[in-house]
Amino acid sequence: MNIPIKKIQQLNTPIVALLQLTGFCGLLMIISTVHSSNFTYFYLGWNLFLAWVPLIFAKIWSSRLQQKPLKKWKSIVMFGLWLLFFPNSPYLITDLVHLNTRFNDSIWSDTLIYFSFAFAGLVIGLYSLHLVHKILTAHFDRLKSWIVVLTSIALTGFGIYLGRVQRWNSWDLFTNPFNLMGDVFLQLTNPQAIRMTLGFSALLFVVYYLLRSVISHEKSQK
């Protein structure tokens, strides 16, 4: 029986591809757990779930705007929620710090699983950024849109530092806001915070700009 081309095209979407990548990561996690007889890798599954949260907010925001115009305050709330959780996506890159630098029998499988989760988190995050950028471009001019995007990337770089080094979580803004904000101001002059913020912000910008360049090139070839 022939499968209709339209149904195949419906499956050929970024979300489906990201779900497949997530499934691959989940399979690696299960295999590694069974092989090692412990639940060491399960925190990666939680981190990858958190990486999906900003994409979910971006998709909801985009879908709502396609149905009808949103009030300004609602769009601000959606953007704020997306930005609050956006650092969780590229944060998975920092899980590479758990790789054992000494050679052992599991170093190659550990490298595969940690890199797969880091790559998945990065790609999921960049796709959510792409959706938000499209929304911004539809409401603002090109310069303003890029200013918001670059500011978001810089804040995300700082957010990665707060998560990895200071061990803050996105929801701490609601559960422990005063201590969080106090630490944020303290870290603004911390040399390590500045280096990590610049480093991860630069990485996110370069990879995102590469993604945008590929998309623009493909569109121009049609």
Describe the structure.
This protein is mainly alpha-helical. It has one domain. The protein is globular. Helix content is 77%, strand content 0%. Helix 2 (14-36) runs antiparallel to helix 5 and helix 5 (107-139) packs across helix 9 (191-221).
Q: What structural category do the secondary elements indicate? A: mainly alpha
- Net shape: globular
DSSP, total strands:
0
Helix content: over 70%
The first-to-last residue Cα distance is 31 Å
Which value, in Å, is the CA radius of gyration? 19 Å
Largest sheet: none
Instruction: Please tell me the overall pLDDT.
Output: 91
Summed up, the domain count is 1
Fraction in beta strands: under 5%
The topology string of helices and strands comes to HHHHHHHHH
Instruction: Outline the low-pLDDT stretches.
Output: none
Q: Number of helix segments?
A: 9
Name the descriptors.
222 residues, mainly alpha, globular
Q: How are the secondary structure elements laid out?
A:
Layout: H1 5-11, H2 14-36, H3 42-67, H4 72-85, H5 107-139, H6 142-164, H7 172-175, H8 177-187, H9 191-221
Helix pairs in contact: 2-3, 2-5, 3-4, 3-5, 5-6, 5-9, 6-9
